[in-house]
Amino acid sequence: MRDKGVFIIGTDTEIGKTTIAAGLGFLLTKNGLRVGVMKPFAADSKQYSKEFLSRDTKILKEATNTQEHNDIINPFFYNIPSAPYLVSKIQVKCKRIDPKKILEIFLELTKKNEFIIVEGMGGLMVPLTKNLYIADIVKMLNIPVILIMSNKIGTINHIVMTSFLCRHYKLNVIGIIINNLFNLKERKFRMVNAVLPETVNELTGYPILAVVPYIKSPNKDKIARFLKNTNMCKLFF
Ligand SMILES: Nc1ncnc2c1ncn2[C@@H]1O[C@H](COP(=O)(O)OP(=O)(O)OP(=O)(O)O)[C@@H](O)[C@H]1O
Ligand SMILES: [Mg+2]
Question: By residue range, what is the domain housing residue 58?
Answer without folding.
Answer: 5-234
